[in-house]
Amino acid sequence: MKMLRAFTITVFLLCAFSFSIAAQTITLVPNGSDDTASIQAALNQCVGLKKMCTIRFAPGEFFVSPVIADNFRGTIKGAGQGKTILTLKGIQLKDNFYFEPWSATNPQPNMFTFRGGDITISRLTMRALGRNPLPLYCYLPGVCFTALQSFVVVTRLPESKAETNSRIEDIAIIADEGDINGASNTNNAISWGGLFFQPKMEYGGTHVLRNSHFDRCHVFFLGARNVKFTAHGNVFRRSSIALDAWQLDNSEVTISRNDIEATWTGLGAVQLTSWDPDGWVPKNPSSWLIANNHIRIIRNRPEPGEGIFVMDAFHNLPSDQRKTMLNALIFNNKIEMSAGSRNAIALYGTKNTAVVLNRMTGKGQSGIAAYGAKSCALRKNKVRGFEASLAHIYLAATGEATGGNPGLPATYPDTTDCLVVTDSPADHVIDEGSNNTVINRP
What we know:
Blueprint: H1 2-5, E1 10-12, E2 17-20, E3 25-28, H2 36-45, E4 53-57, E5 60-64, E6 67-77, E7 84-88, E8 110-127, E9 137-140, E10 143-145, E11 148-155, E12 164-174, E13 186-193, E14 205-210, E15 213-215, E16 218-225, E17 227-232, E18 235-249, E19 252-256, E20 259-271, E21 286-291, E22 294-297, E23 306-312, E24 326-331, E25 334-337, E26 343-348, E27 354-356, E28 359-371, E29 377-379, E30 386-395, E31 399-401, E32 410-412, E33 419-421, E34 429-431, E35 437-439
Parallel strand pairs: 3-4, 4-6, 5-7, 6-8, 7-8, 8-11, 8-12, 11-13, 12-14, 12-15, 13-16, 14-17, 15-18, 16-18, 17-19, 18-20, 19-21, 20-22, 20-23, 21-24, 22-25, 23-26, 24-27, 25-28, 26-28, 27-29, 28-30, 29-33, 30-34, 33-35
Antiparallel strand pairs: 1-2, 2-3, 9-10, 31-32
């Protein structure tokens, strides 16, 4: 018996995967038609394990319909971008699929749905082909789609209070033309956090996205508490919106050294007083570091775009309820805008936001605009190369403004108590707010 334990025991199944008990490794080989059953079976083998397992995808093209795993603990690893390709295979979802218990027999309109666990994905390509990658499905009467909602969803397992962790690196996610935001057949490349009417990611975790490529799709973090999220070194092409992090409670977000081309907005940090129909909102402030990114806004579709927008709607509450829920440092980003854009960097209702040493070029309304911002610091930003229709730097008076990808008009108070230190005496600053200080650098 002891001699037998020294060997790796491998069981080959007709669904084309092998499971190594000693090494906790599953190897998947494409069958050329539909690999969903083998992929779901492999995910099931890695559920709830104390020791992490590995699912290895061989080179080739896998066809997969939506799959789901609860408390997955392991690594999904391909042979490399463009070598291992996972192509979405559409299936008809059940009626009322979203509000019935999620399972392998009641999947969601995502390629992979992970609820809880510790997930790593690397070295592969995911793609969805055609304008309508899924048959028509409806969340509610009249709320219907044929788009893929997300390639990967990472959310909390209902009834669990354990951390959820994930690491996604060295992958490519490729969407096709479609009708989402007038550009794509997919809503999100990756969606983290708590979805509408679903449990929020309230019990912490660390999530990392590195060195990956996204074409015509969006990365979204929404509805979480006590998390750390890092997006570093990624490339976005032909995205309507590149990356947003919204509705985060007592969390830290770092977005750095990403190369972004978007048709609408580049990066967003948003805290809203209401958004989710179930009423969940942050209770404690979160922090964002947005640094060393290169952002290009092209086309201004479906609406005039912004490079970086930061919005804290909690400052628009009545004075006795007003509080700061978002702290941000926007540092050393390079932003290129196209004619018809709104602002390269926009602050909506924020407090203590620092915008330092950024460089703006191209055309638009303003290089930096602040609407209802308080105690902001705008220091030595290079805006001379920006052709502004309003001003290089604009500090707004009380009034309505619409911006960011929420596209929500709101009335903001004066921008007050801000410090502007220009990079050049040629920088054009319009201060319509109150009690601001503008220092023109000689």
